[in-house]
Amino acid sequence: MKWIIDFLLSSLGKKLIMSLTGLFLCLFLVVHMLGNLQLFFDNTGETFNLYAYHMTHNPLIKVISYGNYFFILLHAVQGILITAYNRKAKGGSYQGKEIADTEAKLASRNMRNLGLLIFVFIGLHMWQFWAQMHFFEMGKQTYDGLEVKDLYSLVKEAFSQAWVVIFYLISLVALALHLMHGFWSAFQTMGLNNKKYAPIIRAVAMGYSILIPLGFASMPIVFFVLK
Q1: What is the gyration radius of the CA atoms in the chain, in angstroms?
Q2: Residues 6+ apart with CB under 8 A from 149
Q3: Which one of 49, 69, 177, 181 has the lowest number of neighbouring Cβ atoms within 10 Å?
Q4: Packed helices 59-89 and 11-36: angle between N→C axes, nearest 10 degrees
Q5: What is the pLDDT of residues 13-61, one digit of tens each?
Q6: Strand partners, 147
Q7: Closest alpha carbon to 24 in 70, 63, 61, 59
Q8: Confidence band (pLDDT; 50, 70, 90) for 105?
Q9: Which of 85, 219, 73 is nearest to 160 (CA)?
């Protein structure tokens, strides 16, 4: 067991944990975005409210959600530890400054700052919706005798505010840059960056990093425009 602990605490071990947690969070983003797109299924909110109700009352989803919260924190902590290690090893410089790949320069140089902005964004997002849904009184709707919390109206109200929409869009740009570099780096860390598959991985990383943030961005934009 000692060698496993020593490996996980090593620089390579930290990077591997960060890569694996990052890829898990990438998968979560896909599921989360597809679920939230139900906001567009009707303008009464019934589809989305019922979706939110079943997601918050499914025991399996609850377990996965708590695991996801843990992975977010673990991913953030590993990022801080790796950044601190690199700065110390490089005499205060950030490792990303030495990366030659021009596609990744902006993201790699600012992974720490991008990650911090995304972490603040997650905190605001969870306060606005998750915390309100779980711990505060809010409006309710009844569908076929089932009373559910009206999360749709909460989303609509939040995205009617210009500052919220602007902050969300800025954060999603940061997320796109973070994903663009992080997705590719995860495969590099795991040694899956040979010449044969590198172009495919790059293409998938680029497509994912653009489409997922665009999917999330469509929600505040549409609600704000149609308010």
Answers
A1: 20
A2: 49, 52, 53, 133, 138, 139, 140
A3: 69
A4: 140
A5: 777 888 888 888 888 999 999 999 999 988 889 999 999 999 888 888 8
A6: 142
A7: 70
A8: low
A9: 219
Q: Tokens 């709707």 map to which residue?
A: 141
- Residues 142-161: tens digit of each pLDDT: 998 899 999 999 999 999 99
| N residues, the chain | 227
Class of residue 184 by CB neighbours under 10 A (exposed 0-12, middle 13-18, buried 19+): buried
Tokens of 20: 């694996």
Stated pTM of the model: 0.80
- Rounded CA-CA distance 181/104 in Å is 6
What does the H/E/C string look like for the chain?
CHHHHHHHHCHHHHHHHHHHHHHHHHHHHHHHHHHHHHHHCCCCCHHHHHHHHHHHCCHHHHHHHHHHHHHHHHHHHHHHHHHHHHHHHCCCCCHHHHCCCCCCHHHHHCHHHHHHHHHHHHHHHHHHHHHHHHHCCCCEEEECCEEEECHHHHHHHHCCCHHHHHHHHHHHHHHHHHHHHHHHHHHHHCCCCCCCCHHHHHHHHHHHHHHHHHHHHHHHHHHHHCC
Instruction: Tell me the one-letter amino acid at 13.
Output: G
